[in-house]
TrEMBL record:
GO CC entries: plasma membrane
Chief location bin: membrane
Lipid bilayer topology: Single-pass type I membrane protein
GO BP of this protein: cellular response to bacterial lipopeptide; inflammatory response; innate immune response; toll-like receptor signaling pathway
Domain TIR span(s) in chain numbering: 494-637
GO MF annotation, one: signaling receptor activity
Keyword Membrane: yes
A Pfam family the protein falls into: TIR
Membrane-crossing residue ranges in chain numbering: 440-463
Highest rank taxon of the organism: Eukaryota
UniProt keyword list: Glycoprotein, Immunity, Inflammatory response, Innate immunity, Leucine-rich repeat, Membrane, Receptor, Repeat, Signal, Transmembrane, Transmembrane helix
InterPro entries referenced in this protein's UniProt entry, alphabetically: Cys-rich_flank_reg_C (IPR000483), Leu-rich_rpt (IPR001611), Leu-rich_rpt_typical-subtyp (IPR003591), LRR_dom_sf (IPR032675), TIR_dom (IPR000157), Toll_tir_struct_dom_sf (IPR035897)
Protein name in UniProt: Toll-like receptor
Length: 653
């Protein structure tokens, strides 16, 4: 048969195969025969350009689950996917796979829902091992019969990777080693056995070519690969979702894996007791996933020294003590979902570039982080219960200055405390410089205090406050002593019409004009004068108070001399005090001589106030006006007072 005729025949057979599969009427035996007709003429070196350009063949995806009638062929020269394999049709499967000898184009084989006995399974494995298939996948495998030892022939294979998921073994009484030995000694680069309740795996009998092992979601324990020195080429080991408990034993498991780079121990039961023996990790290990375990702060005493990427998410870590870990090569650290109360320092992580601390218990991250972690380029710290305060505002300001990227900013950064700021994004939270700068606040408070003290001191000096305090104290003490010595005299009896307060320099006018005109005029007027009415033995202040309280009115003779007299000031103060304490109108001001404002001392502010608000009698220089002056003065002090003979002063016969 010529080359052209052979090519035309192959094209015709492919079209027939396509037509049959389109109508869902291709059986396994028919597929075998058609495949033999075509594949026998395939050049083993793959040089036939016309054959390589044939269209892909597909069938309807509805397959019978009762028998092995339909085959899904995605690409007759690259991939094959079969389902519902049982002991009844496994011979047909082996016959089909036997056609794909080494050098054929089929590289990928997937078997789904396979339920066979041990011998049939071994026959399928052995057939695949000596075919052109490189990647073999089994999804949902049920092993029915007794498992026994088998001398598997691993030679002359194209296999690179085997993946088995969801294995169910119905036979409970068999030697575990007979099963595990088949897989442990496989001469392939990658092996995955997942979701299969596997409790152990043997160490290979000789140096293994395994570079990738994935035992996801099984029941493996700390006994796995202990003292195993045969995994000399292993680079990736995934043991996620198993039952490992001791971190130190995991470290010793890796110690003889000289090329191991990635280890996934997430979702186990790992913990580490600081009292345990020292850990010993593979020196080549650069990426380690320990997330979702039971690790605490002590984990940092048991970590690979050359690690570059470390995932400790979802553990029970509260802090990273200084000096606990020296991971100089660490570039990425994930501490999300732990119990951290603050950001860690980078004294032991000098190469750290990425840090994830989201979903911890950080209220106020320390701004010292940016001084300690100079090489960090990205920080993921969202979803923490932030307390919006000055310290937090300092942290945000330094973050902007440092150039570190805050991941998920601003949506993931929200105030949790105080209550009135809950829900506020950190970008919208601001406090004044004065409120946050302690030094500035203290200086401002000190300055305000000094100003206040200075103002108070000035007012005290200007208004003579100490003098008024002293006078108030003396008045209070005098009243207290009087009440204590004579409690029966709680109600004061008026004895005088008026108490006269004047400067000694104005005494001539008082003695020659004031007293004679009031006491010797019409009516009975009794005046209180210090020279004749002060009681010997009592203090001057006490005498002044007594005289003022026993007088109906207090007459103050104002002149430039008056404002220069200390005692006149006392008398004016006590009279003024009576004015307010008794709510009486007892003050009479006589302006004997005009008083220039500039000579009135500052402490005489009450005198200034009285002269400004109250009407006073001015001593007239013209004699013709003096009669009216005396008449007005007598009227102001007119009151009936009791006399010793029982009469009333001021009464007429």
């Amino acid at each position: 048969m010529t080359e052209n005729m052979r090519s035309l025949r192959n094209i015709f057979l492919y079209k027939c195969l396509f037509a049959l599969t389109f109508w869902n009427h291709i059986s396994l035996s028919m597929a075998n025969e058609l495949f033999k007709s075509v594949s026998n003429d395939f050049p083993e070196d793959g040089s036939d350009k016309k054959i390589k350009s044939l269209p892909l063949l597909y069938t309807n995806s509805h397959q019978s689950k009762a028998n092995f009638d339909w085959v899904v062929i995605q690409n007759i020269t690259e991939s094959l996917s079969l389902s519902e394999i049982t002991n009844d049709n496994v011979k047909k499967l082996v016959a089909l796979l036997s056609n794909f000898r080494q050098g054929s184009r089929l590289q990928n084989l997937t078997l789904t829902n396979m339920s066979v006995d041990w011998n049939a399974l071994i026959e399928v494995f052995q057939t695949v091992w000596h075919s052109s298939i490189e990647y073999f996948n089994i999804n949902s495998l049920t092993q029915l019969s007794y498992i026994k030892s088998y001398d598997f022939d691993y030679s002359r294979t194209s296999m690179k990777a085997l993946t088995i998921k969801k294995v169910l073994i119905t036979d409970l009484y068999f030697s575990q080693d007979d099963l595990y030995k088949i897989f442990a000694d496989m001469n392939i680069a990658a092996l995955t056995i997942a979701e299969s309740e596997m409790i152990h795996m043997l160490c290979p009998a000789s140096n293994s070519p395994f570079k990738y092992l994935n035992f996801l979601k099984n029941d493996l324990t700390d006994l796995l690969f202990q003292n195993c020195d045969k995994l000399v080429q292993l680079e990736t080991l995934i043991l996620q979702k198993n039952k490992f408990e001791s971190l130190s034993k995991v470290s010793f498991m890796t110690s003889r894996m000289k090329l191991l780079q990635y280890l996934d121990m997430s979702n186990n039961l790992l913990s580490h007791d600081a009292a345990d023996v020292q850990c010993r990790w593979a020196e080549s290990l650069t990426e380690l996933d320990l997330s979702s375990n039971q690790l605490t702060d002590s984990v940092f005493e048991c970590l690979p020294v050359n690690i570059k990427k470390l995932n400790l998410q979802n553990n029970q870590i509260t802090s990273v003590a200084k000096g606990m870990a020296e991971l100089k090569s660490l570039e990425e650290l994930n501490l999300a979902s732990n119990r951290l109360a603050d950001l860690l320092g980078c004294s032991g992580f000098m190469s750290l570039e990425f840090l994830n601390v989201e979903m911890n218990l950080i209220l106020t991250p320390s701004a010292d982080f940016f001084q300690s972690c100079l090489r960090v380029k990205e920080l993921q710290a969202g979803h923490n219960p932030f307390k919006c305060s000055c310290e937090l505002q300092d942290f945000i300001r330094l973050e902007r200055q440092s150039g570190v990227k805050l991941s998920d900013w601003p949506a993931a950064y929200v105030c949790e405390y105080p209550e009135d700021l809950r829900g506020t994004q950190l970008k919208d939270f601001h406090l004044t410089e004065l409120a946050c700068n302690t030094t500035l606040l203290l200086v401002t408070a000190l300055l305000l205090t000094l100003v206040l003290v200075a103002v108070v001191a000035f007012l005290c000096i200007y208004l003579d406050v100490p003098w008024y305090v002293q006078m108030t104290w003396q008045w209070t003490q005098t009243k207290r002593r009087a009440w204590h010595n004579h409690p029966e005299e709680q109600e004061t009896v008026l004895q005088f019409h008026a108490f006269i307060s004047y400067s000694e320099r104005d005494s001539l006018w008082v003695k020659n004009e004031l007293i004679p005109n009031l006491e010797k005029g019409e009516g009975c007027v009794q005046l209180c004068q210090h020279e004749r009415n002060f009681i010997p033995g009592k203090s001057i202040v006490e005498n002044i108070i007594n005289c003022i309280e026993k007088s109906y009115k207090s007459i103050f003779v104002l002149s430039p001399n008056f404002v220069q007299s200390e005692w006149c000031h006392y008398e004016l103060y006590f009279a003024h005090h009576k004015l307010f304490s008794e709510n009486s109108n007892s003050l009479i001001l006589i302006l004997l001589e005009p008083i220039p404002p500039h000579i009135v001392p500052a402490r005489y502010h009450k005198l200034k106030a009285l002269m400004a608000k109250r009407t006073y009698l001015e001593w007239p220089k013209e004699r013709s006006k003096r009669a009216l002056f005396w008449a007005n003065l007598r009227a102001a002090i007119s009151i009936n007072l009791p006399m010793a003979d029982g009469q009333w002063c001021g009464e007429t016969d």
